[in-house]
């Protein structure tokens, strides 16, 4: 459980409340005890069973698809409203302000940290990647932000709001929004 | 619209896990408790129900709403499910209000539940994170504690809020819950305890964040005639408001503050609003409810608040949304002691303790957050507070406020996407 949590390093690490992590594995039971007297059944312990819950999901990015095609080609795409000029860093085909349709535009590949965090825990899917840093990126001349990972920093103390960061792209696209990530700018 | 009253409520004790009961049984416990508190009620007086639970993934049972309805014996009367993330319970409460206010029903049951123990914590966090855009947000590292951490880091940047001020919210709510037998976590903590707890998403520690729970809650709402038939102490619902905001935090505008009646434009010269530091939906919901209830100066006209403190940071942000203080003043507001209970000892030096107690029950941080039940739990605790029946229901009077004529309940979903505010008042 011990993780780098950014606290003082020289404090002794002794924890009387330490305990093993609970896991949901156990023994399969074939013979369940049963009483002769049915009136005691209400005091029986609950039976808890475990089974997998897994699906292959066929997800379409729909009208957002060009964003992912852009990432695969090292381009960061946003959209701009043809009617009111509002520019979205996280693209949407229709403008929330005027309802107009937007056009695809290329975003600058350098921006600034609008806000950030470092996640020491996470959803199960990302737990093995912890600790990781999340940033909301702001771009010059763009009205909205983009959520991305930041790498190339140690801990949260190395990240400052307003600091310049630069987009980088995975060479082998996974067609996920993490195909783009950010590093501190030069 | 007709006047609507709350006549009774019940809550199952929130626990980390309730393997002894399915969701129907937990709802039944809360329902029977509520019925027991208004002995004059007969089944034929109930016209229908509204049910709420957040996640089909947690339940792994579609149409769980009808299964709870049939377990309660409320078939073939009307029922529907209401869902809106963390605000599910608050929306359900307002759904029952709508049913009675419109005249469709004279008496409506609002029930809510969640069974979050059926998966492990990190899988549970994954389910919750699916309540963020799965094209752009979830795959980047979807984790709600991370989202709220980003929001509060911006709040700290804009306003100078401190992690110690956040920790004070945790101390307050855990201590309040010490005297609430329904609460899941009843602890005496210090600011240092909160800060020394394991870091989850910087700067939020384990003790800045609410836990997952199994639990259920029920509210019974009625029109005036039915209400006074059932109880001599009904609580009137005098204001309701519901606000919304863009799902993606990245999309939130940076415009002008929506002003509360006690604020001026010059209060916020350089503030871009809401950005990611404030909850516009909370402000919108609050102002609608204030207008309907005729409230102009919330801090003076409301006696206490039960608000959605999924994070210590979001409690501070919510003080501001609800105009209990100005935007940016939330940290100072808790530091000075305003939202603490006047009669409880916290081990903290507080200059102005108890102006407007917030989360006298202990809130989500200490009571637990079985999502679909949470907003209804707040209504039940506020209802007992206004009735003056805390001693009867908690078994001890410590948390009963002397003056509790008017309370505010606040329910909040994913980074502030849905927020409900309802005003409850002494109705007799
Ligand atoms: Zn537009």
SSE order and pairing:
The complex is a heterodimer of chains A (186) and B (428).
Chain A: H1 65-72, E1 77-81, E2 87-88, E3 102-106, E4 110-119, E5 132-138, E6 146-150, E7 164-169, E8 180-184
Antiparallel strand pairs in A: 1-2, 1-3, 4-5, 4-7, 5-6, 7-8
Chain B: E1 4-11, H1 23-37, E2 48-52, H2 56-59, H3 64-71, E3 79-82, H4 88-101, E4 107-115, H5 121-129, H6 138-141, H7 144-159, H8 163-177, H9 191-196, E5 199-201, E6 204-205, E7 214-223, H10 224-230, E8 235-244, E9 254-255, E10 273-274, H11 280-293, H12 298-301, E11 304-306, H13 312-321, H14 330-335, H15 363-367, H16 371-387, H17 390-394, E12 406-412, E13 418-426
Parallel strand pairs in B: 2-3, 2-4, 11-12
Antiparallel strand pairs in B: 1-7, 1-8, 4-7, 5-6, 8-13, 9-10, 12-13
Bound molecules: zinc ion.
Compact overview of the structure:
Chain A has 186 residues and is mostly beta strands. Chain A is built from 1 helix and 8 strands, in the order αββββββββ.
Give a written overview of the molecule.
The complex is a heterodimer of chains A (186) and B (428). Chain A has a five-stranded antiparallel beta sheet with strand order 6-5-4-7-8, with no helix packed on it. A three-stranded antiparallel beta sheet of chain A has the order 2-1-3. Helices cover 4% and strands 24% of the residues of chain A. In chain A, a hairpin with a 5-residue loop joins strand 1 and strand 2. Chain A is mostly beta strands and 186 residues long. The radius of gyration of chain A is 25 Å and the shape is extended. The two termini of chain A are 35 Å apart. Chain A has a domain of 119 residues: OB fold (Dihydrolipoamide Acetyltransferase, E2P), CATH 2.40.50. A nine-stranded mixed beta sheet of chain B has the order 3-2-4-7-1-8-13-12-11, sandwiched between helices. A two-stranded antiparallel ribbon of chain B has the order 5-6. A two-stranded antiparallel sheet of chain B has the order 9-10. In chain B, 37% of the residues lie in helices and 17% in strands. The mean pLDDT of chain B is 97. Chain B is α+β, with helices and mostly antiparallel strands and 428 residues long. Chain B is globular. At the A-B interface, strand 4, strand 5 and strand 6 of A face helix 5, helix 6, helix 7 and strand 5 of B. The structure holds zinc ion. Zinc ion binds next to loops of chain A.
């Amino acid at each position: 459980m011990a993780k780098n949590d950014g606290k003082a390093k020289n404090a002794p690490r002794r924890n009387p409340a330490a305990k093993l992590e609970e896991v949901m594995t156990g023994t399969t039971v074939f013979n369940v005890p049963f009483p002769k007297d049915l009136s005691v059944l209400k005091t029986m312990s609950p039976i808890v069973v475990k089974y997998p819950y897994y699906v292959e999901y066929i997800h379409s990015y729909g009208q957002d698809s060009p964003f992912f095609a852009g990432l695969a080609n090292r381009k960061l795409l946003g959209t701009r409203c043809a009617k009111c000029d509002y520019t979205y860093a996280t693209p949407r085909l229709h403008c929330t302000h005027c309802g107009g349709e937007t056009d695809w535009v290329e975003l600058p590949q350098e921006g600034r940290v609008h806000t950030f965090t470092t996640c020491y825990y996470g959803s199960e899917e990302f737990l093995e990647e912890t600790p990781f840093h999340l940033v909301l990126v702001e771009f010059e001349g763009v009205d909205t932000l983009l959520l991305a990972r930041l790498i190339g920093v140690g801990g949260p103390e190395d990240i400052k709001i307003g600091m310049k960061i630069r987009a980088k792209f995975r060479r082998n696209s996974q067609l996920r929004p993490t195909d783009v990530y950010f590093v501190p700018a030069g | 619209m007709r006047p609507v009253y709350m006549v009774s409520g019940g809550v199952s004790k929130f626990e980390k896990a309730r393997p002894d009961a399915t969701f129907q049984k937990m709802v039944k416990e809360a329902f029977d408790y509520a019925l027991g508190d208004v002995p004059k009620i007969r089944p034929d007086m109930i016209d229908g129900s509204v049910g709420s639970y957040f996640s089909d993934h947690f339940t792994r049972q579609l149409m769980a709403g009808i299964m709870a309805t049939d377990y309660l014996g409320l078939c073939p009367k009307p029922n529907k499910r209401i869902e809106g993330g963390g605000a599910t319970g608050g929306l359900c409460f307002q759904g029952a209000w709508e049913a009675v206010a419109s005249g469709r029903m004279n008496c409506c049951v609002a029930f809510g539940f969640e069974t979050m123990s059926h998966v492990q914590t990190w899988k549970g966090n994954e389910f919750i994170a699916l309540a963020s855009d799965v094209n752009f947000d979830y795959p980047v590292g979807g984790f709600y504690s991370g989202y709220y951490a980003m929001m509060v880091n911006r709040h700290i940047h804009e306003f100078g809020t401190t992690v110690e001020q956040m920790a004070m919210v945790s101390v307050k709510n855990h201590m309040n819950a010490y005297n609430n037998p329904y609460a899941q976590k009843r602890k005496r903590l210090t600011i240092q305890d909160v800060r020394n707890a394991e870091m989850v998403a910087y700067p939020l520690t384990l003790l800045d964040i609410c836990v997952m729970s199994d639990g259920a809650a029920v509210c019974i709402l009625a029109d005036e005639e039915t209400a006074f038939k059932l109880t001599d102490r009904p609580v009137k619902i005098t204001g309701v408001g519901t606000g919304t905001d863009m799902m993606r935090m990245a999309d939130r505008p940076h415009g002008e503050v929506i002003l509360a009646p006690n604020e001026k434009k010059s209060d916020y010269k350089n503030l871009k609003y809401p950005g990611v530091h404030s909850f516009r939906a909370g402000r919108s919901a609050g102002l609608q409810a204030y207008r309907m209830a005729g409230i102009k100066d919330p801090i003076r006209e409301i006696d206490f608040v039960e608000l959605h403190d999924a994070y210590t940071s979001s409690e501070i942000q919510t003080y501001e949304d609800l105009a209990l203080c100005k935007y940016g003043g939330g940290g100072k507001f808790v530091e000075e002691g305003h939202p603490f209970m006047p009669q409880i000892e916290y081990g903290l030096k507080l200059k102005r303790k108890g102006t407007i107690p917030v989360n006298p029950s202990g809130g989500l941080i200490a009571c637990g957050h079985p999502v679909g039940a949470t907003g209804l739990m707040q209504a039940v605790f506020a209802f007992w507070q206004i009735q003056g029946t805390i001693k009867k229901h908690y078994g001890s009077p410590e948390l009963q406020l002397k003056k509790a004529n008017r309370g505010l309940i606040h329910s909040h979903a994913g980074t502030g996407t849905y927020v409900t505010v309802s005003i409850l008042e002494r109705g007799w």
